[in-house]
Every structure is written in structure tokens, then in C-alpha cells.
Amino acid sequence: MMITVHRDLFGMGRLIKAADLSLGPAACRYVSLNAAENTVIFVAGLHECGSTLQLPKTPDSLLYSTSLNYNPTPARNPVILRTNPADNVSSKAIKPTWVPFSSTLSAEERLDFSLHLMNDDWSAERPSNRF
């Protein structure tokens, strides 16, 4: 498989270092860097770098899964880049808005909740109630 990653990983106009990227749990390194297109290219076999075959398989297709890891190295002179304005911060005391469980239990004498077991991709409830 060949995976191409754009170095503007977060779409903010700031390029990441190619050396900070790795593929899969085996942390495979990139094989080439395209400076003109600002891309990093990984090439690996389907069973390399910790890729896993996903189930269920269909008669005419296989689905493999892997992960792209970004572990940034600290800069010598770090610059904080804020993409959204910060809210005003006050040092005044705040009062919590939550109600403690014991208060709810004594006032209501019961606490309702529901639990649904979902399948692995969260698309539907599990047919079995066993987990």
C-alpha cells in the first residue's frame, strides 16, 4: 500500500516535520518526501507496520486498517499558535451547576439510566446482551 500525507496535516498553513510521522503500531518511517507538493509518502506491505485485516471480509474485497502517528518534537523556541480567540477568564469564585448523586437519590428515591451495548462500529445495538 502507498499512503500519501500532506504536511499541512491540520490545514492551518503550518507544515509538520516528516520525521514526526510514523505508520502503524510498528512505527514505520516514510520512504520519500515530495518537497514540491509538501507530501510525505509511506510504502508498506499489507501485513507490515502493524496493519490488521478487518472482519467481516466480503468475497470480492478485503479491508485493512492502520494508523498514522504524529509525535511532534519540541521546538527550541516554541511559539503558541491560537486558532480561535480565547474567552475572558475571571478569578471570581464559581458555583458548580451539578447536583451530587446523594442529593438526587434522596430527593427522587430512584435514579433512572439506560445502557445499550453497541456493535464494534456503533451502527446498531448488539444482538446479544452479553459483553
Structure write-up:
The model has no long low-confidence stretch (mean pLDDT 77). The protein has one helix at 101-108; strands spanning 2-6, 21-23, 32-34, 39-43, 52-58, 61-65, 68-70. The longest helix is centred in the C-terminal third of the chain and has 8 residues, at 101-108. It is built from 1 helix and 7 strands. The protein is flat and about 60 Å long. The two termini are 34 Å apart. It has a domain at 1-73: Zona pellucida, ZP-N domain (Immunoglobulin-like, Sandwich). The strands form 3 sheets. It has a 3-stranded antiparallel beta sheet, with no helix packed on it. Strands 2-7 form a two-stranded antiparallel ribbon. A hairpin with a 2-residue loop joins strand 5 and strand 6.
Give the structure's gist in a few sentences.
The chain is mainly beta and 131 residues long.
Low-confidence stretches: none
Instruction: Count helical runs.
Output: 1
* Shape category: flat
CATH architecture heading of the domain at 1-73: Sandwich
Strand order of the largest sheet: 1-4-3
- Determine the structural class based on helices, strands and strand pairing: mainly beta
- Report helical residue fraction: under 10%
What's the total count of β strands? 7
User: Going by CATH, what is the homologous superfamily of the domain at 1-73?
Assistant: Zona pellucida, ZP-N domain
Within the CATH hierarchy, at the fold level, what is the topology of the domain at 1-73?
Answer: Immunoglobulin-like
